[in-house]
Amino acid sequence: MKQNILSNGIIFGSTGTLGSRISLDLAKMNTNLILHGKSLEKLIKLDNEIKKVNKNVTLLQADITHKDFAANLLSKVASRFSRIDFMINLVGVFFGLRPLTNFSHKEWDNLIEVNLSSYWRIIKELEPLIRKSQNAKIVFLENKDISSGKTYHNTFSICQTAKKTMLEIFNKENSKFKIKVHFVEIEKVNAGMSLSLAGKNMYDERKMKEVSEMVMKKCL
Questions:
Q1: The total number of structural domains that make up the chain
Q2: What's the pLDDT tens digit per position in 66-114?
Q3: Which residues make beta-bridge pairs with 58?
Q4: Are 19 and 90 spatial neighbours (Cβ–Cβ below 8 Å)?
Q5: Which of 220, 189, 210 has its CA nearest to residue 89?
Q6: Cβ(141)–Cβ(184) under 8 Å?
Q7: What is the CATH number of the domain that holds 101?
Q8: Is the pTM of this model over 0.85?
Q9: Which in 100, 131, 141, 144 has the greatest CB count within 10 A?
Q10: Does residue 35 have a pLDDT over 50?
Q11: pLDDT band at 194, cuts 50/70/90?
Q12: Is 1 among the domain residues?
């Protein structure tokens, strides 16, 4: 695998099922990492695992739905990195298989915020640091079956489609900066995002290794 020297990378949603594996694998490479997570406890647990391979990372504990998240994001990341060479966003929430209208207005707003709007906010705030890289990569996970409008996948399906369109537009608008946006196709993109489906959708070791390798190839 071709590897940039001391690539600066940030992973949003690093403490999830796949996020932890990808974070650990990338930490073993010659990378400087900022790892984001909502739970400080889970971030510390991940940090302890990474320290076992003699690597140090920067932890970014934050709730992406908090009103101050976007306002403080650039300053926090810029205090550690002068540029971002790769960014992986694994943030998502899935309430389970439900009809499209079977949500309260508050639940709908929360799902749209996490699964779509937060992606836009992160891109908007970190764009200056992404543009400073000579060959920046932005990586997202997708499942074409879900993004094509799969029934009972409600806002998760809608946001998958909208997110891909949004990032394709961003990619075209920033073509002169040579920013590459990659969508990695995986089988269970909602794994670990729903308590009701967690037992059915958790990845085994072999599949996590495959996904992690695909993501790393896009980043390094």
A1: 1
A2: 989 999 999 999 999 999 999 999 998 888 889 999 999 999 999 999 9
A3: 34
A4: yes
A5: 189
A6: yes
A7: 3.40.50.720
A8: yes
A9: 141
A10: yes
A11: very low
A12: no
